[in-house]
Amino acid sequence: MAASGLQTFITPYRAEDSEKLVLQMKNGLSSLRYRPAEHKRLQAVIDAERLECDLIGQKVQKTCCAAKATTESSLLRQHRQVWSRECPRLQKAKQQAEDALQDFLEKIEPNSANTGLFSLQEYELSLMREREGFRRATMEPVQQLRDELRLRLYEGLQQPPSEHLGHLEAVKMQIKTMRNHQEVIIAQLHEEQQDTEEEIGSLYLQKYFCSSSDILVNFDKVPREVLDADCPYPELKESLIQAFQSMSESYRSRLQSLQEQLQNTDRFCGWCSDDHHLFQFVESMYTQEIPRHRALCMDMLQRLFPGKTRQELVEHERLWDSQRFTLTQLKVVTQQWQRDLEELLARALATLQEAKDAHLKELQLHRDRRHQQEICLHLREKLQQWRAQQEEVAKLEAAVAARQQEEEKVKLKREKEKEDAVRMQHKEKVRQFYLTQLKRREALERREEERLAALRSVMEEQARRDRQRVQLRADMLLRRQEERGELELERQREEQARQNRLEALKKQVEVVAEADPVRMTANTKAWSSRVLDKEYQKPLYSLNTYTDTQARLLIFCLKDYKNYLCDYFLQVLHL
């Protein structure tokens, strides 16, 4: 026997604990507080919990997959929105580029230096003919094949399954053959594109285009307007030339440093030209006006360049931003130099013009002074003659003024008399006008009173008609109410008759039972059976213990052995 089993079997015995010993023998050596472990039930619970955890994990995984799919669909939808907005801009830019190229080709004049450029127009026409022929040779057969395959698939669906599978295999082989043929055509087109690019590069078209990285400015050149200007002051002209040279020197150092920065960096930032141009296009497509443009741009770049990491893309973006910033600075510095040069040239020309004007004014002033001295002598003689004439004129004017004053007084008197006569005529006309207005007002009042009386009579007649109409409406409403009341009484009478018929039918089919007072006061069978069950559940004997658990166990045992108990033991139980 094991040590644990031996410890449970050996029990301390006391004479006063005989009742406890009997209880332990009855219930077993183990305590009632402990239960044996149910391994099968616990294993089933663990399996159920594990299955539930697996289901939860599957749900979480499905949720994560759904979230990823939702995020992917949202990103694709946003990319489509950006592309739908970018397509019109690209089409417009394409049209502008084609127009600019057409204008460039039209402006080219034939000469011995650029015969290749002059032949570009003829080359354009040949390219258009080749493009149309290529479309007829490649695109139209593909479209015809697509329509034919659709028709064959539709006809194959109406055939038995075995023949339909063979039909599908033939269609797949034909599609695969056409795809291989298209891949060969695309490879040939790519080779022709490279050859065309090399041919265009051999035409030396770079001299017709101005790149922002090849900005060359002639700082040593002083404007011809300043050098050829006729300045009466040589020191002023020399100072202006020095100002132009100092300004050019300050801008030369800045532009040289920026051009050195551009020369030290690669034009395509370490990538090939195609990848760099594609990177520029994607970055220009996702502008700052688009929400989450940074995340969308990086997502599109990772889709287009799956072989490059995010860090490489960010580093390339940083290099491109630095190069673009340097180009912008170079352009801004050049524009500033041109603006400052124009301003300095305008100020220099204005200064030279002012110097010329000042020199001309000095010469004119010297000539004017000499001329003024001659004029002063001549004017002094004329002044004396003029004073004598003025004295004579003053005397004559005084006599004429006295004579004119007398004539003016007579004229004023006559005009006053005429004005008095005219004023009297005006007063009479005003009085006649007021009388006429008064008569018109009285006639108007009489007409208005007559009109008012006529309107009142019409309104009284209308009121009488309205009262008659209201009375007629009231009588009609009263008649309608009486008719509705009669209809309601008729409906009630019909309802009462229907109820009476129903009562008569109920009396015909109702059940008549005899009175049974004994049955009414006696107990039911259910009640009797419930009382009997309670009697069966009552204990045979009552025991007073700390808990009723042991008493119930003992009573159930005594019920089994009640035939073997003596009277003395029954009396002890009753105590």
Can you give me a brief rundown of this structure?
The protein has 575 residues and is an all-alpha fold.
Quick one: how many beta strands?
0
Principal-axes geometry comes out as flat
User: Order of SSEs, N→C?
Assistant: HHHHHHHHHHHHHHH
Q: Largest beta sheet, briefly?
A: none
What is the helix tally? 15
Query: What structural category arises from helix and sheet content?
Result: mainly alpha
- Work out the radius of gyration: 63 Å
As residue ranges, the low-confidence spans are 1-10, 209-216
| Share of β-strand residues | under 5%
Question: What distance separates the N and C termini?
Answer: 43 Å
Helical fraction equals over 70%
Question: Could you tell me the mean pLDDT?
Answer: 76
Organism: Oryzias latipes
Keywords: Coiled coil
InterPro entries: CCDC148/CCDC112
Coiled coil: 327-500
Give an overview of the whole structure:
This protein has 15 helices and no strands. The model is unreliable at 1-10 and 209-216 (pLDDT under 50). Helix 5 (120-157) packs antiparallel against helix 6 and helix 8 (234-264) packs across helix 11. The chain has helices spanning 3-9, 18-27, 39-107, 115-118, 120-157, 161-201, 224-227, 234-264, 273-285, 293-304, 310-509, 517-521, 525-537, 548-560, 567-574. It starts with a helix and ends with a helix. With 575 residues, the chain is mostly helical. The protein has a domain at 540-575. The longest helix has 200 residues, at 310-509.
